[in-house]
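Title: Request for sanity check on Succinate dehydrogenase cytochrome b556 subunit prediction

Description:
We are preparing a figure and want to confirm that the structure record we downloaded matches what your pipeline produces today. Could someone re-run it with the sequence below and paste the raw structure tokens into this thread? We only need the token string, no images.
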Amino acid sequence: MQFHYRFSPAMLTSITHRATGAVMATVGAILLVWFLAAIAAGESAYATFRDVFTTSNGHLNIVGYVVGIGLTWSVFQHMASGIRHLVMDTGAAFELKTNQLFARMTFVFSIVMTILFWLWLGLK
């Protein structure tokens, strides 16, 4: 018996949806607890927290950008995938080509929205 298994955009979207949810929950919870503990512990603890993500002049450093952009992309990807699933829950988009197109569009949407969001932040 031989199986022909081909990885598809829908499979990647499903895996990414689960991964982004887990990453946002885990990283978000760790950062929130660390932030709240740093505030409660005093000025020097908060300065340590802040210095992990920013330079001395208050701008984001590489860690700040990686975490910020990564979490932003995760939010947009998870949201787009969730909307895709919501549409599919109505009984639509089960035709193979439409399903694959919607799966690809979740990645296009999340990348474009992440870029636009960070450009918007840069203008502020």
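Thanks, this matches our download. The first helix runs from residue 9 to 41.
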